[in-house]
Fold these 3 entries.
Entry 1:
Amino acid sequence: MKTIMIVDDESDVLEKVKAFLEEDDFQVVTVNNNRTALEMLADNKENNFGLLLIDTELPDHKKTALFSLKPASKIQSDISNEENFLQKPFTRDQLLAFVKRQM
């Protein structure tokens, strides 16, 4: 199973998301800034990351969400497609369903 990277500047969100995903047997790496995430992706020659969950704002809203991105995909992610976003706050079940759809 490929690893999920979570990028968020809020440590409590990182801990919560990591705990939820690890309870469901996902491998998780947490990062608190974009620069570190980009460095890790550049160093990741074996494409171990199957999914990135990145803290952002929903398009045309002021609400925060996790944006999903498949780093190894040759298809560009559609940032206007709300199915690629999970609005905060979310429950454990909502997170797991979202991740499973995106994987």
Entry 2:
Amino acid sequence: MLAETMEWLDIQSSQWYVDANLGGGGHTRAILERGGSVVAIDRDREAVRRAEETLLPLYPGRLEILRGNNRDMTALVSETGHKVLGVLFDLGWSTLQGEDPERGLSFSEEGPLDMRLDTSSGPTAEDLLESLSESELESLFSEGDEPLALPIARALVQARREGRLPRTTTSLAAFVSGVYYRKGFRRSRRHPATRAFMALRIRVNGEYDNLEDSLCGSRKLLEDSGGRVIVLSFHSGEDRIVKRRFRSWVSEGAAEFLFRRSLSPSENEVFENPRARSARMRGVVVVPR
């Protein structure tokens, strides 16, 4: 939904915008190509390094790349001294992150059960599978809208007792698929392990808490300029947080909806990029103080 994102972000020449999830740099590049300037944030060391090598030399004076958590957006952007006119959140992981088997974000290739976006700190997905109780694992998978949260949690705890806990992405995917098979679920276009992997990634990276904090930070940054906040989410849990937060701002008189209902990708875009099928866009304009 790149075209729609740029349209609703309403890029103005020489104005500064925050790309709160730099990732592969696609949105940052698009803003720069339209004449805007960007403060790009990511906690992924590799994402920052790639952008510094490929984008920074092309746009001197118009691009600031910061390594950090976007929940600290207010402090990070304030240090640059730039007044920003819009904030963009793309809550999906980049293709480069997903294709790196060492990250453990995908089960298409075997890799360690890591899943951390910042690989220098915090527990891995394997650490969680090793340490959480059955009820805690059930809660974790339920946050990812996993319909078999309890059976999967129960099976993992039993496997842990017996010393056969999955240790790689492909073995965990096969394990979850086995639970689905035993429960008689029919095959669908979505791999049975998709929601379980997403739930683990969300918990490993504290994505729900980060989203709550970073949304509040974006509003604070834009209270003087009256700029726009655009969010692209790819999971119903994320979308619920954004929807609730935006409604609360509007009811307080602190923001106005750019469009009342979430926007979805076109059929053509989904055909060309099946990963976009779950994308939802929401946007508000912050009312200046």
Entry 3:
Amino acid sequence: MATKTQQNLRQAYDKARRVNPRPITGRETALELLEHAFGAYVGRQERTAFELMKRSLEENASVFLTLSGAMTPAGLHQSCLIPLVESGAISVITTTGANLYHDAHRALKHHIREVNPNAGDLQYRTARIIRIYDLGFREEVLLDTDRLFSAIIRQSEFQRRMTTPEFHYLLGKHMNAIEQELGIEQPSLLSTCYRRAVPIFVGAVQDGSIFLNVVKLKKLFGSEFKFELDINDDVYAMAAIQHYCRHHFSKRMAIWILGGGVPKNYTLQGEPLLDQILNVPTQGFDIDVQFCVDPVDNGALSSCPAGEGHTWGKVSADAVETGSVYCHCDVTAVFPWLTHALMQTKVARRKPFRLMEKLDEAIGFLDKDVAKRRKELLATVEWSVKEVK
């Protein structure tokens, strides 16, 4: 006689989706292929990722996209991210300074080309060609890009203390003006996010060439150069935007993680900052979609799945049970395909949230909740070794 557990498993099995792909004719849309031809293994992970991306937009969730690695040299922003920003799908971006820096090469009408990764790096260095695996560009591309950002950051409106979304919003404003003046047809990610008021956070801004030029300017101009980044306000701003989104719009939040790294945790840590540090109740992200090549069993944060994140309060219980997928793949091999399918749906186009324009309001909204808890928060900053004894 079957146990109750066995009966439940059999019932679930009988209701489960059949793996029954149809012959591919070449006339199918991306949506049709995802429906029947991706039934197992990484293919099934891809299909699940697409379903959760689509669900994010169906539920009008605030979509926080994180981007690590050398994705802009590979053009992923041109093929996927810029269309998604322009369609209103993406609400907030967290990335690396490198992705924003390398994106600017094309605005200067420089080219990134395919190269042979096995041609010999000593020879590439002699030829003054910079290599990113199978991509390459001339060394003068870096020198021209350094001059561009140095000239922009010297402008008067940068001479104050600010957060990274404020910094990148200003950079986007200037990049937008430069692209219009030069007649650049393909906009940069910075200028696109400026026009759509999408905040761009960079959690390790000092680990990138844009900030290396800030170091140069500070040494050249000393006290006359007053630009400064406030990392305290930056971390708080991320939590404030998440808290604001939770209590406005659809009250749902999704995170799409492209590659892990610092951008992943910098975004996810906003939830434990609210709940565990500031005592402001929250529940974690409702949908968690991640694309990463790393194995999940080495303890690395880049590859940790939603369940592990849930133990930290980063994602909700619902996300772990029905709203997460770890797609074990190279982002560049999968995300263009899923973006293509997503753009074939009506939900991919929605009114943009324009959260950059609501940043001050979001910070003020969180300030009020923190002020209400000041007394209980004060108790968390007092400690004595006697408590351990």
